[in-house]
UniProtKB/TrEMBL annotation:
Belongs to the PEP-utilizing enzyme family. Residues 7-344 form the PEP-utilising enzyme C-terminal domain. The chain holds residues 521 to 876 of 876 of the full protein. The gene is ppdK. This is Pyruvate, phosphate dikinase.
């Protein structure tokens, strides 16, 4: 009832008054962004643009990845650009001038390519059309044993000319249409500063052409990016820790397979008390995060730091993020109230090797 709602409001207001960490949401569409606002999100920390290409638009990504000629590729990009612009306008509007971090596309290819097995069966049973045969050859060529460690993120952006440029242009043109929009462009799966530089130059040129300002930053989600954060910060205006991938790569656990396979045995043996995909592993992943925060800020004082892996909404991990000097956590809309509360509790508990 009303009394209870008012009491909860007072608790949240108290937490907000004392916390130092900002709290953002992971949201990929205007509806989720609006919900996140109602839960108190102060921005979007992760908009996963590959989620915009599921469902009906999947075909467009397939056309792009499998394009046989530069002309086909350009046609696929031209079809995608206005759709993306509309997506971004909706999100900027929903966030009313708060920062919105848009991550350039990071699709594990196995989630987007046509089904290899289905096509193979068609071919083997003589039911394949000419188009099926062309597709099958292309899918075989692109097939990967470990898609989560394969042609994803910045790698895809560097391999498919025009893909990231299309997205950056859509972001810039959307921002120009929405007064007060605060876009932040984020490059995924970077392992080397050279990858980031190659993308950043083109992105900066497009932003200047359109006449829009945006921060350009990177995810820190490979161990190498964390270990070379001092160099990476030369080319990044912010870091956002992708602790889902960073956990996968630091432990060597496949995100796709591991939970079902042997985690229950590991929990039984006490190798960890809780899955490291749920609560940030302070001794391993956490040390990489701190090292990257310190070395990044040594290169670029005031470097903005956030986290957008699942850990951003986990209570214990929120405390660790506060203590590590991060500026914000970003989590799913439903976890925002708890993140706000824990950020307040972390501030009251004091502590923290603030690296700012
Ligand atoms: C991450 O790796 O932590 C992350 C936020 O990116 P995704 O889960 O989309 O790989
Ligand atoms: Mg990731």
């Amino acid at each position: 009832d009303d009394e209870l709602v008012r009491a909860v409001d007072r608790i949240m207001a108290h937490a907000d008054a004392v916390r130092r960490l900002r709290v953002r949401a992971n949201a990929d569409n205007p509806e989720d962004a609006a919900r996140a606002r109602r839960f108190g999100a102060e921005g979007i920390g992760l908009c996963r643009t590959e989620h915009m290409f599921l469902g009906e638009r999947r075909q467009l990504v397939e056309d792009l990845v499998l394009a046989a000629s530069p002309q086909d590729r350009q046609a696929a990009l031209d079809a995608l650009e206005p759709l993306q612009r509309t997506d971004f306008i909706g999100i900027f509007r929903a966030m009313e001038g708060r920062p919105v971090t848009i991550r350039l596309i990071d699709p594990p290819l196995h989630e987007f390519l046509p089904d290899l097995v289905g096509l193979s069966v068609k071919a083997a049973t003589g039911q394949a059309t000419d188009k099926d045969r062309v597709l099958l050859a292309a899918v075989r060529r692109l097939h990967e044993q470990n898609p989560m460690l394969g042609l994803r993120g910045v790698r895809l952006g560097l391999v498919i000319p025009g893909l990231f440029a299309m997205q950056v242009r859509a972001i810039a043109e959307a921002a120009r249409e929405v007064p007060g929009a605060q876009p932040e462009i984020m490059i995924p799966l970077v392992a080397a500063v050279q990858e980031l530089e190659a993308v950043r130059e083109e992105a900066a040129r497009i932003l200047a052409e359109v006449g829009v300002e945006a921060l350009i930053g990177t995810m820190i989600e490979t161990p190498r990016a964390a270990l070379t954060a001092g160099q990476v910060a030369e080319a990044a205006q912010f870091f956002s820790f992708g602790t889902n991938d960073l956990t996968q790569m630091t432990w060597g656990f496949s995100r796709d397979d591991v939970e079902a396979a042997f985690f229950s045995r590991y929990l039984e043996l006490g190798i960890f008390g809780v899955s490291p995909f749920e609560t940030l592993d302070r001794d391993g992943v956490g040390r990489l995060l701190r090292l990257a925060a310190e070395e990044g800020r040594a290169t670029r004082p005031g470097l903005k730091l956030g986290i957008c892996g699942e850990h951003g909404g986990d209570p214990d991990s929120v405390h660790f993020c506060h203590d590590s000097g991060l500026d914000y956590v970003s989590c799913s809309p439903f976890r925002i109230p708890v993140a706000r509360l824990e950020a307040g509790r972390a501030a009251l508990a004091g502590g923290g090797s603030d690296t700012r």
